Amino acid sequence: MAAQPWERQKGESDRAYSLFLIYRNQAVPRSTSALARGEYVQGPDGPNPDNHPIPTEQKLREFSARWKWVDRSRSWDNWLQSARDREAAADARKWERRRIKALDEAYEDAQAIRAKLRLMLRFPVADKRIERITKADGKTIEEIHLHPVRWAARDMATFAKVVAEIEQGVIGAATSDPSSLSDRELDAILDAHKP
């Protein structure tokens, strides 16, 4: 299998490849003149970990032309960007799934509050107490006592307002205008809905 352009090429010496890596790992825009002046990141792990002397600018230009440093570095940049894009797309899919789950849960919560509100409108919410009474004849009966829970009309209004706000937020978020979304966001939405 042929080496990737940013990998060591057939016939490329250790020295030539080492210099290419130093060139490739420069900040963009790269240049042989900056490299010749020693304007590159130096650290214990690179790009020149062995502290080899850097050749003259003329010699660097010869290496660059012969081993196509500009094209190879561009391929490296493209590969790195592609890897970043894949990670960003995976992250966008993850967050889109979380967003959809949160919307579903918020909608379910709104429906639970609505159900409680309807119950309050039909019959006051009550505590149910069962009292066992033994009659003189020895029979035990159960009496059920309902004690309304304290609430006021304003409580129902508050519940209704909360339900409406949650539902509007959920429906608004779930039906955003697709033209305002980026390609990445649209792809994430489509991917999140795949089985």
Q: What is this structure, in a nutshell?
A:
With 195 residues, this protein is mostly helical. It has helices at 14-24, 32-36, 57-67, 69-122, 153-174, 183-192, and strands spanning 126-134, 140-148. The chain has 6 helices and 2 strands.
Describe this structure in words.
The protein has 195 residues and is mainly alpha-helical. The chain has 2 domains: 14-67, no CATH class; 81-192. It contains 6 helices and 2 strands. It has helices at 14-24, 32-36, 57-67, 69-122, 153-174, 183-192, and strands at residues 126-134, 140-148. The chain has a two-stranded antiparallel sheet. A hairpin with a 5-residue loop joins strand 1 and strand 2 (140-148). Helix 4 packs antiparallel against helix 5. The radius of gyration is 35 Å and the shape is rod-shaped. It starts with 13 loop residues before the first helix and ends with a helix.
Salient structural properties:
two-stranded antiparallel ribbon; 195 residues; 6 helices; mainly alpha; rod-shaped; single chain
Distance between the termini: 36 Å
Number of helices: 6
> Structural class of the helices, strands and pairings?
mainly alpha
Helix percentage range: 55-70%
Oligomer: single chain
Residue fraction in strands: 5-15%
Largest sheet: 2 strands, antiparallel
Are there runs of 5+ residues with pLDDT below 50, and where? none
Number of strands: 2
Mean pLDDT: 82
Radius of gyration: 35 Å
